[in-house]
Design goal:
Length: about 270
């Protein structure tokens, strides 16, 4: 069965897109077939995946889900040509990352009036492709509008990304409160929510203090493995390349952190 996971944070710049791409890279490397739904109007995930620009974008599809068949509009990312580094996909289909691309028209949807009519639109689009992917990752915008609500309504799990900083602690509290409010105000339940610490530097007292503070505040909700901060990530993203395929050994700790994070989301076959 497909796992559907939203990557969220009501704060921008914390690493939602980076975590989405890191998980997608880990999944392809392990032989999984992944669909990334880019719901941020900036389209950073679409860019980072070298996504083709034909096919209807998510803004058009979410506005009129009955007029589209998602399977006809999504495209394989440029990463897919690299194949897998591991086991075959559980679906029996070729491993790789596919994209439902973003567009600026998502902005209008995000800001549209609250209406229950929109809420199930993404779930409705995803339903027919659930057997075609092992994992569906939804990269959310940093706002709590209609797009994030549609993403949460379609997801079994929400990952809230945080940096080890004072502002991010407050941002995580806001995100967790928003998830609780969403669950009590709608008929949808987010199966589980967790917090991913990103951009964590080793031997940095402020980062250690803030990470500890997050663990005290949120307990087991904070994922055990933090994602390290490394300037190399920006170079890798600048080349629209997956972390797990980067030739320099320096990328290994980053790749390992994303693989560990992925293992908490889907059951991975053990390499033989
Ligand atoms: N672990 C990391 N190490 C180094 N740079 C990072 C890391 N995570 C994110 N970044 C950088 O921080 C910036 C914001 O990250 P991004 O994933 O775009 O955040 P968001 O999607 O939440 O706005 C980008 O330039 C990205 O390359
Ligand atoms: Mg982003």
């Amino acid at each position: 069965m497909t796992s559907i996971v939203s990557i969220s944070s009501l704060k921008g710049g914390v690493g939602k897109t980076s975590v989405t791409l890191g998980l997608a890279s880990a999944a392809q490397a392990c032989g999984l077939r992944v669909l990334v739904i880019d719901l941020d109007p900036h389209g950073d995930a679409s860019t980072g995946l070298g996504s083709p620009t034909d096919g209807a974008d998510m803004g058009a599809m979410l506005s009129a889900p009955d007029n589209y068949w998602l399977k006809d509009e999504i495209r394989p990312s440029s990463w897919t040509a690299l194949g897998s580094l591991g086991q075959a996909s559980r679906t029996g289909l070729e491993a790789g990352v596919w994209v439902g691309r973003a567009s600026a028209r998502l902005t209008a949807l995000e800001r549209s009036e609250p209406t229950d009519i929109l809420l199930p639109h993404l779930a409705r689009l995803l339903e027919p492709v659930s057997d075609d992917f092992d994992l569906i990752l939804i990269d959310c915008p940093p706002t709590l509008g209609r797009l994030t609500e549609m993403a949460w309504a379609a997801s079994e799990r929400v990952l809230s990304v945080a940096e080890p900083s004072l502002f991010s602690v407050a941002g995580s509290e806001r995100t967790m409160r928003a998830i609780a409010r969403f669950e009590s105000n709608t008929e949808y339940a987010v199966g589980s929510a967790s917090i991913i610490m990103n951009k964590v530097r080793d031997n940095d007292p402020e980062h250690e203090y803030r990470t500890e503070e997050m663990r005290v505040l949120f307990g087991d909700l904070v994922a055990e493995i933090p994602i390290p901060e490394t300037p190399l990530l920006q170079r890798i993203q600048g080349s629209a390349y997956p972390v797990h395929y980067w030739p320099e050994a320096e990328a290994q700790p980053l790749a390992d952190a994303f693989t560990a994070l992925l293992a908490g989301l889907v059951e991975l076959e053990k390499a033989k």
